[in-house]
């Protein structure tokens, strides 16, 4: 990328990080204590290493989290946190959906060729024609599209990145639709 393109991309990334802060809405905390339910055509379990291999029409449930795909694996660390990597197919991409904590009926809904979720850091990474929507009462609040999207629920930011081999002629590589945020008012 040339200097102007790099600077433009950096500005877009910073803008997305700062403008899309959701007002006090985090991932559903109750999800951490829910059982992990796996459905697939084939499930292989290594209980000693805490690794689960999944193949064919995957459906993963954990509280309000719902992940679909065609093949993938889940690793569980000694503290009990899951690391989920799911791949889709050209016909059916992988998907992720999670309810957000708070008074509203808010969800994160995402799709991509690959979906990775780190339950410890609450980092969702989507690659390959990725899209992410934040919905409130089934109405879109924010929408992102790009080659790679990272959503950090703890720090409350999105990041859209181009492929490593992107050229200036390929721009724009990221698209965002961001709804205005209401400013909180303090009553005296």
Highlighted features:
1 helix; globular; 12 strands; disordered C terminus; mainly beta
Describe this structure in words.
9% of the residues lie in helices and 49% in strands. It is mostly beta strands. The protein has a single domain, classed as lipopolysaccharide transport protein A fold. It has a 6-stranded antiparallel barrel. The longest helix has 17 residues, at 3-19. The protein is globular and about 45 Å long. The chain starts with a helix and ends in a 10-residue tail after the last strand. The model is unreliable at 1-24 and 183-188 (pLDDT under 50).
Query: What would you give as the CATH superfamily?
Result: Lipopolysaccharide (LPS) transport protein A like domain
What coarse outline follows from CA principal-axis ratios? globular
Oligomer: single chain
User: Per CATH, which architecture?
Assistant: Sandwich
C-alpha-based Rg, rounded: 18 Å
What is the fold's blueprint, element by element?
Elements: H1 3-19, E1 37-39, E2 42-46, E3 51-62, E4 65-76, E5 82-87, E6 94-99, E7 106-112, E8 114-118, E9 123-136, E10 139-152, E11 157-161, E12 175-178
Antiparallel strand pairs: 1-3, 2-3, 3-4, 4-5, 4-6, 5-8, 6-7, 7-9, 8-9, 9-10, 10-11, 10-12
């Amino acid at each position: 990328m040339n200097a102007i393109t790099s600077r433009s991309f950096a500005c877009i990334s910073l803008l997305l990080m700062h403008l899309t802060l959701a007002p006090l809405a985090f991932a559903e905390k109750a999800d951490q204590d829910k059982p992990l339910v796996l459905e697939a055509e084939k499930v292989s379990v290594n209980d000693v290493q805490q690794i689960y291999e999944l193949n064919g029409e995957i459906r993963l449930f954990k509280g309000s989290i719902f992940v679909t795909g065609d093949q993938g694996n889940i690793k569980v660390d000694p503290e009990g946190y899951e690391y989920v990597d799911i791949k889709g197919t050209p016909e059916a991409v992988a998907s992720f959906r999670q309810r957000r904590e708070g008074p509203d009926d808010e969800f994160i809904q995402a799709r991509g060729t690959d979906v990775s979720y780190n339950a410890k850091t609450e980092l969702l990474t989507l690659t390959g024609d990725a899209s992410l929507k934040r919905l409130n009462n089934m109405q879109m609040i924010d929408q992102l599209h790009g080659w790679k999207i990272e959503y950090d629920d703890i720090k409350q930011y999105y990041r859209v990145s181009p492929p490593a081999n992107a050229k200036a002629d390929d721009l724009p590589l990221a698209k965002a639709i961001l709804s205005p945020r209401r400013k909180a008012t303090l009553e005296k």
